[in-house]
Each structure stands twice: as C-alpha cells, then as structure tokens.
Amino acid sequence: MGAPPMTDEGVPDLYAALGLVRGASDTDIRRAYRNLVSKIHPDKGGDADTFRAVQQAYEVLSDATKRHEYDTTGTVVRSVEDEFMDSFAGGSFRDRVRRGEMEKVNLSDQISVRQEKKAQSHSSGFEAWMRSRGNAGVKVYTSEDVIDQFGVVKDSYDAVPLPKIRAHTVRCKRSGVPSEVLAVEAEALPQGLEWGEVLLSIRYAPVNPADLYTVQTGGTYGESRLEPPFVAGHDGVAVVVKVGPGVKGLAENDWVVPLGPGLGTWRSLAVAKEKDLLKIPTDLMPPEQCAMLREMLAAYRLLEDHGNLKPGDAVILNAANSTVGQLVLQLCSLLRLRAIAVISGHKDFERTSEWLKGLGAAEVLQDSGSLKFELESLKFFAKPKLALDAVGGASATRLADALGEGGQLVVYGAMGGRAPHFTWQQWVFQGVQVKGFNVRRWVRDNKKKLPALLESMAKLVNAGKLRAEFTEYELHSELGEALEHASDRGRNTKILLKVTDVGEQYE
Asked: Which Pfam families match (predicted)?
C-alpha cells in the first residue's frame, strides 16, 4: 500500500490514483479528490504515500495545461514553482504528514530508556562524556587547522607578485555618522599574495543595515570587532583575479561571495583568504542578485526552519519593504502562505501597499496601534503562526500580540535600535515562543547544504519568480549619494555599490 498505480509504460497512472479513467470530466476529478482526501488523510489513519499520490494526481489533472500534456505525452510538467514546493522543507511541505518523524521523545520515554542496561554500559557513558564536552570533544585537527593557527614559513614558498595598482577603498576612520566618517581613498595593493590568499575584483557590494551599524559603532558586528581605520562592507560578489600559493579550491575567473563578516567589500580590489570565501557557479544568477545572496538565504531559512508551516498558514513580518521582507513575501506566495506585511509610517503607503500585495502580501498594515485589532477588523481571523521581526522594540511587541496561541516570533534584526519587549501575558497566556536567527551562523554550520539551496534559489531568480529590487551607484564616485539614499527608510530598494573602475596604476 502506498505506491501509486502505474501504466504499462511504467509511469504513474494519475487517473487510477483517483479511481477514474481517462476522459473523466473536471467535475468527476474534483469530486473524486474530495471523496478520497476525506477518507485517506493520515490524520484519519490513512497511508501518507497514498495520500501524497492522490494530491499529486489532483494537482496535475485539475490544471488544464498540465492535464493536456499528461494526456498527450504521459509525462507530468513540473514548473519551477512545483520544484521549489517539492524541495522546500526537505519535500515535506506539501503536506505535514510525517509527524512521527518529527515528534520528540517525551520525558517518560526518556526515563525508561535511561533505565535499560544498554544505556548504562561503558560505551554509552563514554559517549555521554564526549557529548558533555561539546564541539571540542569531537574536533579533528587537519593540516589546514595547523596552518590557520601557526601559519606557513615564508621561506618555504614564493609569493605571487601583484600589479602596482592603487585601488578605490572606502575606509572608516572612526565611529560616527557614515557620511561623515567614511572616505574613498586610493590604496596600493600588497606586493604579493601570501599562502592561501587570492586577489579579488569586487563587482557589487550592497549597503546593508549591518554595514551602517558597524560604521556607526566604530567596528562592532555581533561579538566581533574591527579596529578603526577599517574597510567597510561585509557582503558582495567578486571575481578571482589571481591565486596565491597553497590555494587549492579556487582559480582565476571563479565567482565568490564572503562566508563571514568583516571582509571589507567596499573597495574595487581586495586580498582575501581562500577559507573566507564561498565559490559559486559563474552562471548561478545575475551578479546583482548574487550580491544579495545573504538576504535570499535569510528569507528562505526564516520560513523553512520556523513555525512548522503548511499551505494556508499565516505569517506576519515587519520591515516588509526591506530586501528580506520582499523576498519573504514572494516565497510566501509560491508556498501559498498568507503573508501580512507590516511597514512603518510610509510617506506613500497606498502605493507601497499595492506593490507589496503584488509581491504576495495578503494584507499590508501600518506598524502602529494594535495589529491584532486591525486584523480582526479586516476579518482576518486566521491568526499568524509565525512572526518575523527585523525592527525590535515596540514593533516586535505588536507582532507578538498578533500571533496565535503558541505562535513563534523570530528576531533576525533590530533596525529600530531597541531590543524587543514582551508582556508577561504574551509569555503566559499566549504561550509565545521567541527565537533568534542569524543567517551567517546558519551558513557556518551548514556549508554542505549550501550548493543545493543556492541552486533552488537560483532557479526561482532565473525564472523571474524571485527578485530583490536594487539601485546601483558607482563605488568611487557616487558613495555620498548612495549613503544618502540608503538612509531613506522608505526607499523600497537595496543600494548596491558597483565597481567599473578598479583604480590607477603607478610605477
């Protein structure tokens, strides 16, 4: 039980899955589906694979174009949206029927297991001791780790000489207002590339809130700190121009993005360590969109990793006109999630509201008053299961108040400059769950998952189903205008610093 019926050609028989024959009318298909799902749903004791086969059959046969293709060729047309839906959340998103795989062992079961003799063996005790040591207990040191810690003797290799070029560099002199403490300077490249280093030609670097925060605080980013003067910019996309000794995984003309913060991407040419870079396919997506990969990854992970969502669920998010917000709305539309977009006092609210609805928002609300009462007045009674906070302060409190019982609020930014504050009623009576999320930490811990995820995102971008709005400014000549535009909270676009002039040669 569970395997879908097959035709003589060895392909799934979609009509048989619904108990029909070819030539069935649209009404027959619709009625057969409704009759079956009421009987075979896993919640009522049905088989999960059978239920999934019925769902997939109905999705094809209820669509005139897909049904015609299936009747004609015997194959099923899968759109980019279909592929994304099937891959999201490991393929379990179409219907959350694998509850048994996701249920955690309850406390009484854990106690019972602990009492078994096998759980009290020497090996299990050793394993428990190893776990208690955390990551340090299972760390395996390689030659690369030794090199990172102690370096390589310079006399053991020849540095790769670099051209005499003064590159355009945006340097932060001290903490303060970005327009006052940032300056474009001409900075000579080092004489050569040392062990493990590569020379990068930066193509695009975004102006992100994190970049401006680091400048305003004089080098702070999370738990790390840069000492002024430092080169601004955490993210971007670059091309490898030269590789130094000891570089194994990169070659000239490879495209790369930073793996972590603090690379200093607001410059035309940069020397970086190979270990600090992620290689991406040169044809992955347009380079402007590649410069915003971090935002794309954040939007995807926020939805997949939180809320245990299923089609039809509601998601509420503030800063919905930000880059991450725009991407979340588009992904919600693809996943058939009902997105509630919340934006701060916007000078052109109606126009922005229509734009956000075009991206996928079911409702657009001002970030003021009571979002809960506003949704009730709009007859939006399906309370959100997930809230995404990028603002903090009172805005996060309003999101939490709008959540349904047991809903989850994820804090991934604090553009308002204040920490979220929650009432005791939200903790006790609503059962609100609050969690923090940092996409850089996710990337650090999930490098093996990145290629498949990037491919999935790229398919949507290249098919025109996912796009982040941007405005370009030349790095060396238009920095002031770019910073002024970036300070406009209602801009609805990402500011990108592009590089078309790498600098000047000297003798």
From this structure: ADH_N, ADH_zinc_N, DnaJ
CA–CA distance, 290 with 126 (Å, rounded to integer): 45
Question: In the numeric block, which tokens belong to residue 13?
Answer: 């028989």
In three-state secondary structure terms, 346 is coil
* Residue 483 contacts residue 207 (beta carbons within 8 Å): yes
For the CA atoms of 25, 31, 34, 36, what is the dihedral angle to 10 degrees? -80
Nearest to 387 by CA among 376, 374, 398: 398
Q: Domain end: 61, 77, 93, which one?
A: 77
In terms of residue numbers, what domain contains 369? Answer: 306-436
Give the C-alpha separation, 192 to 163, whole Å: 8
Integer-rounded Cα radius of gyration of the chain = 27
What is the percentage of the chain residues whose pLDDT exceeds 90?
Answer: 64
- Indicate which residue of 221, 300, 473, 506 is catalytic: 221
Q: What is the pLDDT of residues 222-234, one digit of tens each?
A: 888 999 999 999 9
473 is known as an active-site residue = no
The 3-state DSSP class for residue 74 equals coil
The single-letter DSSP state of residue 317 is E
Q: Is position 144 within any domain? A: no
Token pair, residue 17, equals 């899955």
Rounded CA gap, 437 and 305, in Å? 10
Both 173 and 204 in one domain: the answer is yes
* pTM of the predicted protein model: 0.80
Q: Which amino acid is residue 339, in one-letter code? A: A
DSSP helix/strand/coil, 258: strand
